[in-house]
Specification:
alpha/beta; 434 Repressor (Amino-terminal Domain); 2 domains; two-stranded antiparallel ribbon; 9 strands
């Protein structure tokens, strides 16, 4: 539950003299949606956070930072059926994301099971993993948590078009490099905080 965002939103709304119903009407959402944001059971997506900031007349970063605070130690996963790729890629992710819990999986089913019990902020997925497609794994992860950022990994640029249709926020050619990871972090759909730096 994200109580910092909930408390921040409620404070900003009441300072504006708006009821939950007033805010809902201005955003074209239900009062129930606003109530869920304010009780910490749900977080709006990035586009809605932008609309909230505009409606409440506040700096966008106030709401984004409050939303990001729920990720005390964000979970980042890398899924690739090639152990050599994981062995080379995981240290790079740990270097670039030193405050995240970085975990690697060679079996997609294990990654999905992990995501059911741990909120995954960012997933790096191989597209071809034997009989399993990373595109399908992406769909499962987003069904578990629609706010998971997904970056696809592949050795084949021709997959890029299919990858973009899944709701992913990035695409990277192998091998994994720190420079490429940092570039992808700038384009996340759902930014999060790591070690006090806004990612």
């Amino acid at each position: 539950m994200n109580m910092l965002f909930a408390e921040t939103l409620k404070k900003l709304r009441t300072e504006k003299g708006l009821t939950q119903r007033d805010l809902a009407e201005q955003l074209y959402v239900t009062r129930t949606s606003v109530n869920r944001w304010e009780n910490g059971s749900r977080l709006p997506d990035a586009a809605m956070i932008v609309k909230l900031a505009e409606t409440l007349g506040v700096d966008l970063h106030i709401l984004f930072n409050a939303a990001a605070e729920s990720d005390e130690r964000p979970n980042v996963i890398m899924v690739d059926d090639n152990r050599i790729v994981l062995t080379g890629g995981l240290p790079v992710l740990k270097e670039v994301l030193p405050h995240a819990a970085v975990t690697g999986f060679t079996k997609p089913a294990e990654a999905v099971a992990y995501a059911r019990h741990n909120r995954v902020a960012l997933a790096f997925l191989d597209i071809e993993m034997g009989s399993v497609s990373g595109l399908d794994v992406c769909g499962e992860l987003l069904q578990i948590n629609p706010r998971t950022n997904v970056v696809f990994l592949t050795a084949y640029p021709s997959y890029a078009f299919d990858a973009w249709e899944t709701g992913a926020c990035g695409f990277m050619l192998k091998p994994v490099t720190a420079e490429e990871v940092q570039k992808r972090l700038k384009n996340l759909r759902y930014p999060f905080l790591l070690g006090g730096a806004d990612i």
